């Protein structure tokens, strides 16, 4: 359920990019919203003329409801809630100049997706837009680190979640406050420091205890968690896996499983007022890893109990076969 919520919230944030890349073709004006939709010029009129948009009582009105045709002329009724100040009059005059070119037709209003040449929407073109936005956000012409998210053998909804993590769009409290929510900024897990993505997933005392426990077979990995400033940095610095196939698969999935479970724990703390023990959290992390290996044929030679009871051997790449006949490689 927690991932369902995360997915939905992610989609809502992605919606902003979606809306900004839709342009409209005006027909009879019955569907396009005058202030909100991008139907005339390069941006929505609400962005271009913010002062007079703020005083309009028809913020969601359609073009056809604000502009009404009499004797072949369009009368614009913006429904301002008060008289305009001088500086607002300047914006109004500019807006009226823009609207001189408007002509209604008898056709329905239509929309066009600017992300593709054909104008039709596709997930791929949306994805490319978001990648471009990511490059703009970090201020360099650097490709989105796809290999850190899309090529990792984890569940598709989790890939979407990690995409949001790397884009800095996961709804941690600092982000919620940034977009206008009035809440406490204190971390949901430790109630000690501000909740940011790097705090929640890397440096929160509870997160550190989880990392310390689950990486205990390879103690040096813990220093990477302490030294990483971001989740992306940790993924890049994550040490190579060792030994057998199950060891390699478990180790490479481990940081993703830890972060996924920490996110779930945070949501449990907020929505269900429930907090799990470190042992319980570690079991859940191993459950995620086991589940993500479901498409691997070799998993049939092992049991979930191998992850629970022989974690050291798994992670050190020493476990060749599960069950009671389990063999440990010795030098
Ligand atoms: Zn914390």
Kindly describe this structure.
- The protein is mainly alpha-helical and 331 residues long.
- It has two domains: 23-112; 123-328, no CATH class.
- Helices cover 50% and strands 6% of the residues.
- It has 16 helices and six strands.
- It has helices spanning 2-20, 45-48, 50-54, 63-66, 86-99, 123-138, 156-167, 173-178, 197-203, 205-214, 220-227, 231-237, 245-271, 278-292, 304-309, 311-315; strands at residues 22-25, 67-70, 73-76, 110-113, 319-321, 327-328.
- The strands form three sheets. It has a two-stranded antiparallel sheet with strand order 1-4.
- The longest helix has 27 residues, at 245-271.
- This is Reverse transcriptase zinc-binding domain-containing protein.
- Residues 121-211 form the Reverse transcriptase zinc-binding domain.
